[in-house]
Input
Amino acid sequence: MKMGYYNELKKFIAFSNKQLIGQGIVGGIDYNLERKKDYMGLSVESKVGAGRASRIPWISFLSEYDSVKKGIYPVYLYFKEKDLLILAYGISESNLPERSWNLQNGKTIKEYFAENGLGEPTSYGGSFVYKVYDLKKELVEEHVDKDLNALISIYKKIPFKGHKKEVFKEYQHKLKIKQVPFDINSFQLKTKEAGLIFSAQLIQRFVASLCTKPFVICSGLSGSGKTKLAQAFVQWISESDMQYKIIPVGADWTNREPLLGYPNGLDPKFYVTPDSGALQLILEASKVENQSKPYFMILDEMNLSHVERYFADFLSIMESDGSIKLYSGADRVDSNGNKIDQEIFWPKNLFIIGTVNIDETTYMFSPKVLDRANVIEFRITPNEMNDFFINKKALKMEELFFSKDKNCGGAGQNMGENFYTLSQDKSVIKIPEAPGDENVLNKFFTELQIVGSEFGYRSASEIELLITKLGIKGFEDDKGEPLNNNTKIDIAIMQKLLPKLHGSRKKLVGPLETLAGFCLVRINESQPDDQNKTKTLYQQFISENRDSYKWEIKYKISFEKIERMLKNVIENGFTSYAEA
Output
């Protein structure tokens, strides 16, 4: 519904025109009872006089941390003797405000009067002009509403530099931010402005994975940007840092206490909350007023400890509507006196992002963990590295925020609710197979079953959902076209089918060659010669020197990964999806 103040403004002008300057006010009580007291989350104050009509009636729009006596605020100033109505960047005159409008080339009302031969304003000359309306002409409703809404939008985004950080965060949460549809291109642009180097497809895979299921694992080369991408996205889309926590996982995490805390054994009245802030984040996400906004927990270097030891409760509750029991017996409070419930439920608006490095200090994930996540591998191509050396830019993470002060929230905070809505839509669009082509996912299932790495119904459902999410508006290839079916299936194979694959040379060489063949299509009508007929499709491809006139690589990302695994298992006798 369109927000408008035009009708209220007309009432204000009509009432003010009935009053004679310096004389008694007629009908003032009725006017103040009938007028609107709030607009767009702001309180509205109006003054036409106190017993006697005011020379300059006004209407101000105030946050709860501003007042007309001390602060800044949008304000209508009605200069009756000039037939002028000015919408202004209001500034209190009684007391110096603790922040400013940060205008570069603002014009004060006093300057405007001087330039237009209007003399000297009796009051409010220090406020700045936003719009001037000549009341000898009819006001245009569309223009009036658009101007006021735009100024209020500017007002809401100005940080409280003179207040404590916590006060500003509280203020941010109380103001309703107008939401717009999620636009992935906006995020991609901001990552470039921040100096981050990520391909469009990698960003699309990350976002689609979050929309598919609220558990994503970012794996790959150390220093390839796994944590930076996660950090960039959550900061860009959040209204404040109360919506996310970046938690470094410790090698000594042997139970759930670093995430969920524990009951104080010495004093049964208290519950010890973890320093990581994880429990506090869960409780914040669970609040009724926050349930339409996304919250994020980034577990950095998630496999420095055995994931199942500290994360088992989370893995279980994510798959059900169950709860996690924190303690039993009498109610307990934390060190600040806040009640901690005996059990907590998993908030559907909480997303878990884990980053993983593979080396001698880390642990491998079990199939139980991999089954429940989308696994995205981060790699750097020679072209990307060359571009980095040539066009290296300093990181400017502040570009991800609405303003240079990150307490204002991310530049994409007005898309947060729509992003969460996208993640809750579980409808699936079936991807049509090519005529006569067996379902490639079923072919993968059959071959993976041979080595004990097949997938279940849950993974199959999540694959279909991931393929659907990769069709979100704005997800495009290098040519600006929507992602085609082969690309979507390729990403699904890479993220949901291959991660559990590991084993010895004897176990995997044959199956890997068969899987590689599933990624290939012979496009030349000629049949392989008799010598090649006994070879797998992949072996034929190799024997024909990868001839691009005869062969098409249908699933390029998966094929490249399978070939790397095949090379590793032949050279080293063992391979797995996870690579250093």
Q: What stands out?
A: The first strand starts at residue 38 and ends at 39. The two ends are 53 Å apart (CA to CA). The chain has three domains: 6-158, 184-195+214-372+393-420, 440-576.
